[in-house]
Design goal:
about 575 residues; Translation Initiation Factor IF3; six-stranded mixed sheet; four-stranded mixed sheet; 19 strands
Length: about 575
């Protein structure tokens, strides 16, 4: 294959990948080709004639150089001078765009939004396209580059986006862009997928689920985004598709998958609604990933998603931030610890807990030894999550006292300023500590990652059942609503609770399938997720039916110094 002026860069690099390094060394302006996304987009739209203009090179010089590199210089000579000719229609079009006078829509624009990309080496192509789609009627976008923006111009020509090009000097190329008249109805969105914003999730230390759900809700119809992950993220695909998306998965290698999400145009004939019309915007949060399987299943409910628009989903690793969102009214629905909710309710908050969903969730784990009772923990430092004034310590003190032990005889360790469950789990797994109180899912993950060296010594539910045979459940966490949501949208509340109950029933009956839905979002192996779901107790109980268990539990915490009021003054929270 001989390279001519109208040869696309993409085709040349596909056959001769070694040319990439040659071009990068040829001109500083080609260094952006090191960015794979820039290379992919420029390669698709730019010919070697465009490349020459970008690098301020003679087209003859460029063609002889690249063909010499691939041993095709002789063939190039044989095709001269046609090798450097553009098609007449293409040449005339380019000249026309370069020479036309400044249009009226540029002169009359109320606001020009400037995007200077001269010093940028990142992939800004999708940013430009997204900015264009967000323009108001009287706004225009001006992109400043240090070379002739042929890839962009080629895209605009094909999509019939109106633009005006101005070359002030060799280092200032301005491209004025007008808002498109309407959403482009793409015949095949696969043709534009290379323009999608990219999110590389490999190595993310932070959970990407909330970010992606937020992105899916913010993005406009006819747009898309792309994620890169080590594996095919089937759970994420299953979550995002019901929000009105089509997906395409490309397996680049066994450890590299590219997933494209495209937001479809609404099909009004079928009555589908993926926009905000008629749906209630809600913010949902949880203080712990223990409810991941429940939430994942809930959000797959068409009945619910036809009624609500998920504005944001937050799964906090810091309890204080979760509580802060409740206190400040940022969250409409929260999956929250029963005890924490009871305490902050004392501040006069307008909230209601309508159901308990997680029970019996305290486990003392040990490494290198097995404790049969609290006495066996003496001479070991006991690491507890949160702070000394939190429920884990309060319930531990109470159970020690009730089983004949003095908690003052034990050494408790709390984090500074908080004992984070994930951090405590990691210390236990690494062997840095040998005793810890953990809740799910961290307890199961510690046991799994411990490879047989970490065992469950004491489950508080077993001690509780012996002490109170008639009250054998510890109410751990439930569904909390902002009072305003209950009053304004009772139908939404009822549907959400129904779908929560169905989700719990489904998870309990399909633990392996549920584990395969959540493991990648939780950043764990499927086997770890399966162990977690085999151990955690998920059970839906309406708060009015759980009043007796909740009353007893919170009164126990009160006696151990947690909270300031008797439960009688908190009863309105749960009915």
């Amino acid at each position: 294959m001989v390279i001519l002026s109208n040869t696309k860069l993409k085709d040349a690099l596909k056959e001769y990948p070694e040319l990439e390094e040659y071009l990068i060394n040829l001109s500083p302006k080609f260094k952006k080709l090191k960015n794979p996304m820039i290379k992919k987009v420029i390669g698709k739209w730019a010919s070697f004639n465009d490349i020459a203009r970008v690098g301020n090179l003679s087209i003859c010089e460029l063609l002889h150089g690249v063909n010499k590199q691939i041993g095709k210089e002789k063939e190039l000579f044989e095709s001269a001078p046609s090798c450097i000719k553009m098609k007449t229609s293409e040449k005339e079009s380019k000249q026309k765009n370069m020479k036309k006078d400044e249009p009226e829509w540029v002169k009359k624009a109320d606001q020009i939004i400037i995007l200077d990309v001269r010093e940028r080496d990142d992939f800004f192509f999708s940013e430009i396209l997204n900015n264009i789609k967000k323009l108001n009627d009287n706004q225009i976008l001006m992109v400043i580059n240090n070379f002739y923006p042929s890839p962009l111009i080629n895209v605009f020509d094909e999509d019939k986006i109106e633009y005006y090009y101005l070359n002030e000097n060799k280092n200032i190329h301005k491209l004025y862009v007008k808002k498109p008249n309407k959403i482009k109805n793409v015949n095949n969105w696969h043709d534009i997928k290379d323009t999608f914003e990219e999110m590389d999730l490999r190595g993310w230390r932070e959970d990407p689920f909330s970010t992606l759900i937020k992105k899916a809700n913010e993005i406009s119809q006819g747009e898309g985004f792309k994620i890169i992950q080590y594996f095919k993220p089937t759970p994420l695909i299953n979550m995002i598709e019901p929000l009105g998306f089509e997906t395409l998965v490309e397996k680049k290698s066994p450890i590299e998958h590219h997933v494209y999400f495209y937001k479809k145009l609404a099909d009004n004939k079928k009555g589908k609604k993926y926009s905000s019309d008629g749906r209630i915007p809600l913010v949902i949060q949880s203080a712990t990933p223990v409810v991941y399987p429940i939430i994942m299943r809930i959000l797959q409910s068409k009945k619910l998603m036809d009624k609500i628009r998920l504005e944001e989903l937050k799964i906090w690793d810091k309890t204080e931030k979760h509580l802060g969102w409740i206190i400040n009214g940022n969250a409409d629905i929260s999956f929250s610890a029963v005890a924490a909710v009871a305490k902050i309710y004392q501040k006069g908050l307008d909230i209601k807990m309508k159901a308990v969903t997680v029970w019996d969730n305290f486990y003392l784990l040990t490494r290198g030894y097995k404790a049969e009772n609290f006495g066996d923990l003496k001479n070991h430092k006991i690491y507890l999550p949160l702070i000394q004034a939190a429920p884990p310590y309060a319930i531990t003190k109470y159970l020690m006292d009730k089983t004949g032990y003095n908690y003052n005889d034990f050494e408790f360790v709390f984090g500074e300023p908080f004992g984070r469950p994930e951090e405590i789990k990691d210390m236990l797994v690494s062997g840095e500590i040998d005793t810890a109180l953990l809740r799910e899912p961290e307890a199961s993950f510690a046991i799994y990652e411990g490879n047989g060296e970490i065992v469950e010594s004491l489950a508080y539910k077993n001690i509780w059942e012996k002490l109170y045979p008639e009250k054998g459940n510890l109410p751990n966490a439930g569904v909390l609503f902002k009072g305003e949501i209950i009053r304004k949208y009772p139908e939404i509340v009822e549907i959400f609770l129904q779908e929560t109950k169905k989700a719990i029933e489904w998870v309990n009956e399909n633990r392996d399938e549920s584990a395969n839905t959540i493991y990648d979002i939780m950043g764990k192996q499927p086997e770890a997720a399966k162990l977690f779901l085999s151990r955690v107790k998920l059970k839906y109980v309406d708060s009015t039916d759980a009043i007796e268990d909740i009353t007893h539990y919170i009164n126990v915490l009160n006696k151990s110094g947690y909270g300031k009021k008797d439960f009688g003054e908190l009863k309105e929270l749960f009915i």
